[in-house]
Specification:
Distance between the termini: 34 Å
Helix content: over 70%
Strand content: under 5%
Radius of gyration: 20 Å
Number of helices: 11
Shape: elongated
Oligomer: single chain
Order of helices and strands: HHHHHHHHHHH
Length: 179
């Protein structure tokens, strides 16, 4: 895994820093908790050593720690984080960020699996369509895959113009049939 090497460079092997990071984490420094957690993870320490640090950083609203914890622990760190994440993405989406609307669409699906009440009134497909309308190439490409065969080529060409290389490739192929 190429990213592990990058994490090792970032986390660093310097043990003197561990004491400073531990002290900073104890004073509610979210970044210190996360960095110490990453160091322990990279050093192949047991989950019991890095998990609490990730969760503490998440509790202190360190977004990267929360997202990484979700991936590594197989589920969302907590309901409050999911609520904050959805709220901040929704605000940016309403502000006109196509990329963020596309990201929100995916988060709606993920969060709904664990906390359905948080996504009540949110529609991932409408959010994805809004992202496409705001110029997000990836969302447009995803939308094309759900479009009927008659409109698919036009949709793919649009997504290709926005910068989706997958859409450009698919536009050269025969239309896909819906499953």
């Amino acid at each position: 895994m190429w990213w592990l090497g990058l994490m090792q460079v970032w986390a660093g092997p310097n043990q003197r820093d561990d004491a400073a990071l531990k002290a900073a984490c104890a004073t509610d420094d979210a970044a210190a908790c996360f960095r110490l957690g990453v160091r322990r993870l990279v050093a192949d320490r047991p989950t019991s050593e890095w998990r609490p640090l990730y969760l503490r950083a998440c509790e202190l609203e360190h977004d990267a720690a929360c997202q990484d914890a979700w991936v590594r622990l197989g589920g969302p760190p907590d309901r409050a984080w999911c609520e904050r994440k959805l709220r901040s993405l929704a605000q940016a989406c309403q502000g006109g960020s196509g990329r963020t609307c596309g990201e929100l669409s995916g988060w709606i699906v993920l969060v709904r699996r664990h906390y359905p009440a948080l996504t009540q009134g949110m529609d991932e497909r409408q959010t994805q369509q809004r992202a496409c309308a705001l110029g997000d190439a990836l969302s447009c490409y995803a939308e094309c895959l759900l479009t009927d065969a008659a409109a698919q080529l036009t949709c793919l060409e649009h997504a290709c113009r926005l910068g989706s290389s997958d859409a450009c490739t698919d536009a050269k192929r025969p239309p896909r049939k819906r499953r």
